[in-house]
Design brief:
It is a single chain. The protein is built from 1 helix and 7 strands. The protein is α+β, with helices and mostly antiparallel strands. The protein has one domain: SH3 type barrels (Roll). A 7-stranded antiparallel beta sheet has the order 4-3-2-1-5-6-7, with no helix packed on it.
């Protein structure tokens, strides 16, 4: 097998993995339970992935929530997130459905890591 063929196979497998990750795993992070289960609201200081489907594979930005906007029922509808890259920092306004919670900050400053597919929360 030539090096070029090995490269194409590796690229194909990477693309297959990425498509499957986008189709199967990512939706589980923002799963809607149709109000059957309480879902944690975003809070200031939470670490989120900014979901941008047009961004190349593996380059979705990670940001920190700076300000949240709630509806009349107290549910967070949108947020302003602080995004830092190697060259610049910026603040973006994004709807809550385009933000995927990775870490949340407790009121006493402890980090809570949430295992998204499960229901368990690990407190450190």
């Amino acid at each position: 097998m030539t090096t070029k063929r090995k490269y194409r196979i590796a690229q194909y497998l990477t693309d297959c993995f990425w498509r499957r990750w986008m189709r199967e795993y990512l939706p589980s992070l923002t799963e809607r339970q149709k109000w059957l289960y309480g879902k944690k609201n975003l809070n200031v200081g939470d670490i989120v992935i900014v979901i941008e489907p047009d961004t190349p594979r593996g380059e979705w930005p990670i940001a920190r929530v700076v300000k949240v906007f709630t509806g009349p029922d107290g549910v967070v509808l949108s947020a302003i997130v602080h995004l830092r890259s190697a060259t610049k920092t910026s603040e973006l306004y994004r709807p809550a459905v385009k933000l995927c919670l990775l870490e949340s900050w407790d009121t006493d400053g402890a980090i809570q890591y949430t295992c998204i597919p499960c229901v368990y929360t690990i407190i450190t």
